[in-house]
Amino acid sequence: MKDSAVTTETTLAIDWSQIDTVLFDMDGTLLDLHFDNFFWLDHLPQRYAEIHRQDEAEVREKLAKKFAAKRGQLDWYCVDYWSRELALNIEALKHEIGDKIAFRPFATEFLLWLKHHDKRCYLATNAHRKSLELKLARTAMHDHFVAMISSHDYGYPKEHDGFWQALVQAHGMDLSRALFVDDSLDVLRAAKRNGVGHLLAIPNPDSRHPSRDTGEFIAIGDFRLLMQNG
Length: 230
What we know:
Layout: E1 21-24, H1 34-52, H2 56-70, H3 79-86, H4 90-96, H5 107-116, E2 120-125, H6 129-139, E3 147-150, H7 161-171, E4 178-182, H8 185-193, E5 198-201
Parallel strand pairs: 1-2, 1-4, 2-3, 4-5
Helix pairs in contact: 1-2
């Protein structure tokens, strides 16, 4: 952890009287990022090589370059874009491993706690609507949210100021009284730049990987700690 991120999980305290709205990322925040990492880094290269009859090692190298070129852009998250680009049905391939979709520990308990405390919860994800629908079918997350927003609805990824401007215009929320939880530092920096008052970073988005440095943002790896005060 960098020196600037001095607040640790053992000292984490949230003044819930200053928060009306809670915004959640989906993949890596509420849901285990293992599904997505496994799909893009393992399942997709394997299936691409099988379908297109190419060497898997060469496919992995080619895909890595394609992904890097689109990182942080809306296309990077777009099922339709990658289906066209790779001549594959990405949506169908995701369904093949749908059993790997899972909540992160205590995510549902925290969502229920927030509802009990009359906080308005929104899902704000860069995931394409087709990916979102697959995960909703597996998790029934829709029960917990006022609205579920895909950045594709607005034409900007969450890393872009345009997303936050469109969010406020569409939902009329006061971002200064919102808590936003995400596993992407670039997204959190965009949220801060656009006036989100309270920010938390997920240090362990993929259960199979060790925790990461969350830079200048307070890390919250265990949602139970947020239910201890309020």
